């Protein structure tokens, strides 16, 4: 235990809200207290901080105690000051904070989790507890978010689908400030629980493994600009990506560059192509490319290791930051907070950001409005579904790369029938070529039809409610999110009713399932929509023709 004497200085880096809520620790009495800087991220970005700090503390041998609720900010402070030459930096974590009279409270998140687990055991019984809740470990806490971990994806998904709200409600009975419970898959070593009143000597943790070579280690060698086939659906996204790659600095009108579209349409290809081009033609520019999921895991790792400053320095010092599948951070408050500040720092310093997503910024749910707004600051480029002509070009380019010739009618057949996405189109071509090579049969139209029989049948059969919603929204020039909104103005309600009717006609889903996809509406609302569309088809020829056209488009 560290001896507290006149050479000890406490530095409180909690927020005003935390300070008012928790109170003043007993340790404050008769000790020197430094309360000038409470918001650590602002503190560390303030150029005057170092000078102020060194003026205030004239003895580098002072014991410096950094205090905050979770240990994240105080850990950062200890790391920062330790690097300034002060060896005795300590981190006081959550369990030390007590009431105004110095009475210690059971506010340690690790201890709260123990009590939450006991309550869940009482409510659900020993069998459920042993099967599921006993597999959960407490990982990290922020001001309003708790991060738990499970050893497998299966356990994580099962708990999230059945028990996440129960866990949150029980936790809020102990700490009403917690708004979100996040669960990740992480096989962890045995955790050392925090004990109230203990001090941890701060040590520098291992740095993030995101050096320049690592930043390119996940790139696919096939995904370059040279083998990207350009056509109407992707020409804007291609041109913008090329401009970003060829520039020596951020492209103002395309910062951030936001690429969005369905699965397998070329977003990731363009992201990789940008990174490869910069690596080979402008290697002095520092680039990081990673998925949003990996961004979150790196952030959580930094929190666990109390090494958030290394994380911030790594991601905020790049010239180009590329984040794939940004929709992954939807609903993850702590990760969104860090992404927001990283975004602002890079844009303010004229650094380039490139982001991909499966939908436009305006259609993202469970993401902060301030982030949604910033994602649309630059150029938002949609990568549309492929046309017949573009699919022909993709197949011909692929065959040229492989130095293989197949009959023209086979190429045209593939381009006409495999319409879902580029990935499936190339997969079908590879299957036909592999079958011919292994079996020794000539590639003909008839053989191709037999080889791809199951795939073709699947393509013809499966239409999803989401497909219908997207197509109807596109046709009537409304947002995809309007399909599940409560808005009742005619320009939105009528297309939504039509989409419900088509969902019942073209999918095997029940009225209840359809209602859930349209903003959790009940089955009677869907029945009313179907009846309304049927009536309009009888009385309005133009409306009926529009409905039939949409049905043909979806079926083909």
Automatic annotation (TrEMBL):
Gene: dnaA
Domain of life: Eukaryota
Pfam families hit by this protein: Bac_DnaA, Bac_DnaA_C, DnaA_N, Rhodanese
GO biological process: DNA replication initiation; regulation of DNA replication
InterPro entries given in the database record: AAA+_ATPase, Chromosome_initiator_DnaA, Chromosome_initiator_DnaA-like, Chromosome_initiator_DnaA_CS, DnaA_C, DnaA_dom, DnaA_N_dom, DnaA_N_sf
Family listed: Belongs to the DnaA family.
GO cellular component: plasma membrane
Gene3D superfamilies, alphabetized: 1.10.1750.10, 1.10.8.60, 3.30.300.180, P-loop containing nucleotide triphosphate hydrolases, Rhodanese-like domain
SUPFAM superfamilies given in the database record: P-loop containing nucleoside triphosphate hydrolases (SSF52540), Rhodanese/Cell cycle control phosphatase (SSF52821), TrpR-like (SSF48295)
Originating species: Pseudolycoriella hygida
HAMAP family in UniProt: DnaA_bact
Domain Rhodanese: 4-108
Protein name: Chromosomal replication initiator protein DnaA
PANTHER family: CHROMOSOMAL REPLICATION INITIATOR PROTEIN DNAA
